Amino acid sequence: MGLLRVMEPGGGRFAIAGYGKNGELSDADRFARDYQVEKCVAMVRAFRSHPSLVQYTLQNELGADLANPDVQAVLLAMHRADPSRTVILNDGFVQRGASQAMYVPYSDRYYRSDEVEWGGWWDNHQGAGDQWYDAFYKSPDDYIHRQTGKPFIVEFGEMEGCAVADDHAAMVETIRKGGGRSYDLADHAVILANTEAFLERWGFRKAFPSAQDLFLSVGAKSYDAWANYMENIRIGDEVDVAAISGWETTAIENHSGIVDNLRGFKADPALVRASLLPVRPVAKQRKLAYAAGESAVLDLFLFNDTGKAVSGELALSLRDPQGAVMELGRYPVGATAPDRFSQLVAREVTTPALAREGEWQVHLSFSGAPGASFTRSLWVAGLPAQVASGRRIAVSGIARSLRAQLEALPGLRLEEFRPGQRYDLVIASGLKADEIARRQIGEQTGLEAQPKKGEKPKLVLGELSAQVLAAVRLGTPLLALVPEDGLSEGVARQLADLGLLEFNGTVGDIRAPWMGNWNYLRAHPLFVGIPADRAAGIFHQIDGRLSNGLLVDGPGVEIVAGYSRDHDRHNGAATLVAANKGMRAVMHRMPDMVAPLQRRFLANAIEWLAGQGRTS
Length: 616
Description:
Blueprint: E1 5-7, H1 27-47, E2 53-60, H2 69-81, E3 86-91, E4 101-103, E5 111-112, E6 121-125, E7 137-139, E8 142-143, E9 153-158, H3 168-177, H4 185-201, H5 211-235, E10 241-242, H6 270-273, E11 279-285, E12 289-291, E13 297-304, E14 312-319, E15 325-333, E16 342-350, E17 358-366, E18 373-381, E19 393-396, H7 400-407, E20 414-416, E21 425-428, H8 433-436, H9 466-473, E22 478-481, H10 485-498, E23 502-506, E24 517-521, E25 534-535, E26 550-553, E27 557-565, E28 572-580, E29 583-588, H11 595-610
């Protein structure tokens, strides 16, 4: 892929000793400091002048006192061991006020942030994302990773990294070919076997013929995200360094790197490679999923990292789901200055209405460089003209935000559930009356009851009313929309008591963004018009922080969307159908998809449960 590398020694902070009030240092602390300095210098000597190496960093996200002489001492020792590379103190949080210091190549000038702005090297970490979201690019002047200002070096050391599954099949095969000895072989083997069993048991084989197909589909979510991040980075000429996460995954913790612990890729690296080509035209989208009839808005850029002026013409075209191609325009590109890497060629180019449901493709080519082209897929989701026309649909215990989503569906009329009435469908979340006003299901505010200061969050269990349960027992279909742990756990227990399913707990949540989790969908009437037979990714934009999976079984249970997380040996249900003893329910644990897809899902589910099976 042509990536450049930054080296850290690991535990670099121990090269900076903690002195006592009178400047004393114990023998143990002195030994630890001297040992770490030698380790840092040994690393530098081992990789001195390596062509892929751009800098040495003492430690990630380090807070250091620049008055401590050990700070300069260790950086200077590393600088003298390899004066051809930059040596910096800290990767991370400099923008937030953390100390920074550095030596640049072939210069003994010592930069420090208490004397020079940012210590000459501005750095920020934003590793809180779990995938690409439309909100990360709004316009050429409003996007994540935008930074203005010089003359200091600008680096994004962590960039909303996206943690995904290892290719456990490849890991097991590689380890066994190498003799079969590895501390984590058993972990990979069990995950692989359990995933194969889950796919077989719950009918996912058409979507994923093997577990490896699932792992690679999950991995594509990460690589698609990185391609979009790299475009953002290249938009602004002020950014000098962007660190793609290369952390190797382990059985213990981090899974946000683009390779596994054996340096194996997690998907096709061409997805990332294309975004880094020296001459790259880009049609940057404001969003990736649309309601039928909406138009896409694109900003056209030309990136040029060659150091040579290029000129030519951009040609923009659009391909519809049936393969018809229409040309949208041609845009001349003047020769760029040698030190200008990004050029905004056209702003807010609006496509014709995207009327047909399915996958569209935007194509942009540049005549001034061989093979310089760009393709991006967009998804269009339609809606039926009428949803459950003529059917009585009741709601019970749902949040106001969900009610607003339902009321926006064409032709759908809702009633508040009343005991003794006959309904074609009940939609419920298990919220109690005092919870409805303050809960906003599907938003990012968190759904647990807010604790008092010093208390842990309290998980409020969802609870369907006895009257709703009685209606379900008598055969009224139920759509249970329960996209958080409290609601889903409480309602799952109630449905288990009814005999609809067996509930055995949950897989577990994301733990941390750099550890990762994922949802995946197979083709089913609930997902008509929604990208399926794949892992949920940049089209779906399902919030990983709110995701989880239910461990369920039973003779009438059908799992149509799965869930798992980093190195967990379990897969669970993100969406399930349960039918038994004349009862029928859909339980949807998955958090909201992006709005056009979420509307289509709601329409599908209501039609399928309450209507005539119409989902088109």
